[in-house]
Amino acid sequence: MIDLSNKELWFVTGSQHLYGEETLKQVASNSQEIAGALNNASAIPVSVVFKTVGETSETIRDICQEANNAKECIGLVIWCHTFSPAKMWIGGLKALKKPFVHLHTQFNRDLPWSEIDMDYMNLHQSAHGDREFGFICARMRIDRKVVVGHWQDPEVQQQIGNWSRAAAAHASMQGARICRIGDNMREVSVTEGDKVAAEQVLGYSVNGYGVGDVVAYVDAVSDAEVDALCATYESEYDVAPELLEGGAKRESLRDGARIELGLRKFLEERNAVGFTTTFEDLHGLKQLPGLAVQRLMMDGYGFGAEGDWKSAALLRTMKVMEQGLEGGTSFMEDYTYHLDPAGTKVLGSHMLEICPSIAQGKPKLECHPLGIGGKEDPVRLVFNVGEGSAVNATIIDLGDRFRFVVNEVDVVAPDADLPKLPVARAVWQPKPDFKTSAACWIQAGGSHHPIFSKALPTECLVDYATIAGIELVLIDEKSTVAQVKNELRFNDVAYKK
Predict the structure, then answer these.
(1) Minimal CA–CA distance to 365: which of 252, 444, 442?
(2) What is the spatial distance between Cα 407 and Cα 269, in angstroms, rounded to a whole number?
(3) Is the separation of the CB atoms in 86 and 29 below 8 Å?
(4) What pLDDT was estimated at residue 194?
(5) What is the C-alpha to C-alpha distance for residues 75 and 201, in angstroms, rounded to an integer?
(6) Inter-residue contact 253 to 243 (CB < 8 Å)
(7) How many Å apart are CA 323 and CA 247, to the nearest integer?
C-alpha cells in the first residue's frame, strides 16, 4: 500500500558565474557524482536526482517552482559547492513550497596539502558558501535541517535518509483522507480538534461517516469471500480451536472476516488512508472491529480508537516513514502501571486494536468477551512485543497550534506471563525514568493514545516536526521536568500568532 520507490529528492547546487564556465562544469560534474552516491545509499529510501546548478536568481527560482509542481518531488537537497551569493536565493526560497535539507559538505574529503592552489580554493568553497546560504535562511526565518559532514560518511547518508522519510510522510499526507466512522467517545477532550486547522497545517482532510455506511458494505460481502479470508487467517495465525471449522465460535471469526472485507472495501472506494471507530456507535455491526482494524493497520492504514482522528493520521504518517525498516508501528495506549520502585514499567495495550507489525512471534487469533459496546464477543490477535528501543508520539490540538510530543522508551519483557489478558500488549520503561517521563508528558498535555514505533529513530520524528512546522516536545534520557516546563513556557511565546 505504501511505496517510496517513486519519490524523489532533488539535488540542487549553488554556485555563480564569477569563476567561469570551466568551474561551473566541474561543479555540475561533482554534484552529479554526489547525487549518484546518495541515490545508491542504502540508508536513503527514495531516489536522489541531480537537477541543476543554481548560478543565477532565475535558475534558482525556476527549479524551486518546478519542484512545487512535481508530484514525485518530496523535497530538495541544497549544497553550495562554491560561494553562492545568497541574495540570488531569495526569490526561489520565497516561492518554494517543498521542504529542503541543507547539506554542508565538500566534494573532496581530504585537503591535497602540497597541491592546493587558487583554482582549488575557488572551486572548493562550501566552507563559506554554505554559511552564506545559511544566513539567508536564518534571515528569512526558514526552519530546516542542516546535515554536516562528507557526503560519503554513512552518518551523513543516514541523516539524509531519516529526513527523506519525514519528507515523504509529510508529502503523502497532503490531500490524504481520514474517515471518521461515527463520532468520538462522548465527553473525551483530547480526541477532539480543529479539522480545518489540521488540513491547513498537516495537509489531510477528516470527514465523518455513519456506521451504517460501513454496514452496507459488510452486509454485501459474500460467503465465498469470507471463506477465503478465514483460510488466510488460519495460514497466518495460531487460531484458537473454537474458531476453527466446526468450533463453537466459528461464526464469530466469520463475522470478523466479513467486517474486515466490508471495511476494507469502504476505505478503498473512498481512497482513504486512515479511519476511526468508536465502541459507542456500532449499530448494525455484530462486534467491535478488532481483527479487521489490526490487519488494516498492518497494511499501512492509520487508525484511531474512539474517534481519535489525529492518532489515525499520525499513525499513517509514521507508517509511511517506516517503510523498509524493521520493528513495526502501532496505535497504542498507556493502560496501566507496575509501580515497583525496583523496576517501574508501563503496560501498553488497547481493547483490541494493536497492530501485529510489532508482534513478537506468531500472533494468536482468539475470541473473548469485551465488556463494553454491548455487542457480541469480538475476535482479535493476541501477542507480546519484543524487547528493544521504541518511541511513543502524539499530536495534540492546543487551539492555537498543534504540539508533537515524543518520548523515547525501552521495551522490556513482562515480569510474568499474562494468561488472563486476551489482548496484544507491550511493556516499556520510559526515558529518562517513569516519574520524569509521566510528569513531562502530562505537563505537555500528551494524549493517552500515543503512536508506538519500534522501527523509527527519534530523528525522523524531529525532522517531521520541522518540516510540518509544528511545535515539538521531546522527552528523552536528558529531560527534566523543570527543563520541559521551561520549554513549554518558551514555546507559548515562540508560537504566539
Answers:
(1) 252
(2) 36
(3) no
(4) 96
(5) 17
(6) yes
(7) 38
Contact of 160 with 147, CB cutoff 8 Å = yes
Angle at 14 between CA 13 and CA 20, to 5 degrees: 110
- Residue 392 is inside which H or E element, if any? strand 388-397
Q: Please state, in angstroms and rounded to a whole number, the distance separating the CA atoms of residues 114 and 252.
A: 79
Calpha distance 322→454 (Å, rounded): 9
Rg over alpha carbons for the chain, rounded to the nearest Å, is 25
Grid cell 559538505 in the structure block, residue: 105
Does the pLDDT value for residue 496 go beyond 90?
A: no
- Give the span between the Cα atoms of 428 and 91, in whole angstroms: 49
The rounded distance, in Å, linking the Cα atoms of 187 and 471 is: 26
395 three-class SS = strand
Of the candidates 85, 71, 77, the residue with the CA atom closest to the CA atom of residue 52: 77
Q: Is residue 466 within 8 Å of residue 448, measured between CB atoms?
A: no
Q: Which of 261-270, 363-372, 384-393 has the lowest mean pLDDT?
A: 363-372
Instruction: Write phi, then psi, for 11 (nearest 5 degrees).
Output: -95, 120
What confidence tens digit (pLDDT) does each residue in 386-441 have? 999 999 999 999 999 999 999 999 999 999 999 999 999 999 999 999 999 999 99
Q: How do 100-104 and 145-148 pair as beta strands?
A: parallel
pLDDT given at position 373: 78
SS3 102: strand
Those residues with Cβ within 8 angstroms of residue 482's Cβ, 6 or more apart along the chain or in another chain: none
pLDDT band for position 255 (cuts 50, 70, 90): very high
Neighbours of 345 (CB within 10 A): 21
Burial class from Cβ neighbours inside 10 Å (0-12, 13-18, 19+) for residue 419 reads exposed
Banded model confidence at residue 242, pLDDT cuts 50, 70, 90: very high
Supply the pLDDT for residue 344.
97
Kindly report, residue by residue over 155-201, the tens digit of the pLDDT: 999 999 999 999 999 999 999 999 999 988 999 999 999 999 999 99
Residue 1 in this model has a pLDDT that exceeds 80: no
Name the residue with cell 494524549. Answer: 447
Tell me the CA end-to-end span of the chain in Å, nearest whole number.
38
DSSP for residue 241:
G
Task: Look up residue 314 and give its three cell numbers.
Answer: 499520525
**Whether residue 432 has a cis bond before it, omega within 30° of 0:** yes
Which of 176, 141, 147 is CA-nearest to residue 162? 147
Q: What does DSSP assign to residue 352? A: S
Q: Among residues 175, 185, 176, which one has the least CA distance to residue 447?
A: 185
Confidence of residue 114 (pLDDT cuts 50, 70, 90): very high
Range in 320-324, 369-373, 491-495 the model is least confident about? 369-373
Helix (H, G, I), strand (E, B) or coil at 329: strand
